[in-house]
Design goal:
By secondary structure, the protein is an alpha/beta fold. Helix content is 54%, strand content 6%. The protein has one domain: 3-Layer(aba) Sandwich (Rossmann fold). The protein contains 17 helices and 5 strands. The longest helix is centred in the first third of the chain and has 27 residues. 41% of the residues are buried.
Amino acid sequence: MTNLEIFDKACERGHLTPCRAGSYWEGLEVLIQAIEQDTSITPAFRENLTELLITNLVARLKVDDYIAANPGVRQETIHKPVIVFGLPRTGTTLVSHLLATDPARRSLRHWEAAEPVPPATTETLLSDPRCLRKHIAQELLLALDPRLARAHWEFAEDPTECDSLLSQDFKSAHWAMLVPQYGNWLHACDMRPAYAHHKSVLQMLQAATHGRWNLKSTCHGLFIDTLQATYPDVRMIWTHRDPFRAFASTCSLVRAQQAILGAQVDSDVVRSSCEVYLTQLLTRSLRANPQLSDGTVYHLWYNRLLQSPIEEMRELYRWLGDDFTPPVEERMRSWLSAHPQAKYGKHQYSLAEFNIRESTLPDIFHDYLTHFSIAREAPMA
């Protein structure tokens, strides 16, 4: 498998005119090399990774073609986007879902991140055939095995991670969690082209469907400088949780994702790659923190969010300077009622199953816990 082979297959599938130019080329090449060099990758896992490469490249090439044919979309102004970040498993998804209930806001939907071209209109955002097809397929999967949704689940119409867009430039933590060797390159690469693509997609989608953007991805904590350079008036929500609990939960999620794709899962490798990722996240986020003014970042604690979600959202809206109207509150309450935390079963995980010992983790975990006075959660086995 080579980048040229992936490129040709993507052009054929997307009925695209080949044009081998774009910022995606470098990351794609590094990722393919990492896959080829990893002798632990099973044939099934390799096949699924190849499919993911092609799917992401098709989406990227279609975006480039659309914008080339419709250059006016680049005149769209992304005004004060709200971006949620933090360690994985710290409530970023819950905050994103609650914000998405507000009709004045605009979330990146799961289905449109994967198939953004042609952009949906305001009227068709949740009824587009691409959205409906995806939702039906997901319902069938859950009917076969509801356990798939215990750790994390997004329906087609749900808000999704910005990582989906960064993946189309082949510079994202999503790839690092699947192919650990790629992570070393990611943490040192120039992310400006990936965020430029991120912005281009938002401009393209916004031209057809307006609203104030609220987005989320844990990986933004790695690249706060690039994020701010791309969106100078960005408002950030930083979610906080006991990092040891977040670490174990992340390992469990990554292991499940790899297993679904046919990987021969090694818990020690999962732990190691997650430790590298979380260490980088904490180190870079804490390094950037002194430069983040009070008007730029809002700190939100996971345990408070779970205990009093409406009160926490009311405080967040006050910080944003937005009205927390009765209809918005009712929409959030309705969503919470329909989506209890363990709707598909409790997500079970522990430190022990990944051979994690708090005493041996990097100091940054303890520094982060102390710096933000984060409450410890109940001990795990």
